[in-house]
Amino acid sequence: MIQVIFGKELAQASFLRGHYNFELQRMWVNVPYISDENYAASEFNQPNHGPIWSQIEADFSYAAANLPSSRGGSYSEPGRPIKSAAKAYLGKSFNFIKVNGQKLLLSARSCY
């Protein structure tokens, strides 16, 4: 029900959380991740269990699926993210992900 009413707003929030977590992960590698469940339970003191690329990928994937394709109508304010921005960030995050020492460049190409 909430996702139906606040679909664009949740997608924008997901995009912003992905953006800020992307910058944190890129700069400091092992950063703590506060999930929705931890936030709801007010558990903010989280250990860092390693890279959080999968959570960043999930945020950008959700944003790309739920953001509008272009600005217009009630979504015409400058600075609001759109679908192509989320896909660009998703591709950019794939360039930083490594699995067994190999970069996932094939996954980045499959975004578009």
Overview of the molecule:
- With 112 residues, the protein is mainly alpha-helical.
- 55% of the residues lie in helices and 4% in strands.
- The protein has helices at 2-5, 7-28, 36-40, 53-66, 83-94, 105-109; strands spanning 98-99, 102-103.
- A two-stranded antiparallel sheet has the order 1-2.
- It is globular, with a radius of gyration of 15 Å.
- It starts with a helix and ends with a helix.
- The mean pLDDT is 81.
Oligomer: single chain
By secondary-structure content and strand pairing, the structural class works out as mainly alpha
What's the tally of helices? 6
- Within the largest sheet, what's the order of strands? 1-2
Question: Helix fraction?
Answer: 55-70%
**Sheet bearing the most strands, described?**
2 strands, antiparallel
Strand content: under 5%
* Unreliable residue stretches: none
Overall geometry? globular
- In angstroms, what separates the terminal alpha carbons? 30 Å
What radius of gyration results from the CA coordinates?
Answer: 15 Å
What is the average of the pLDDT values? 81
Order of SSEs, N→C? HHHHHEEH
Please give the number of β-strands.
2
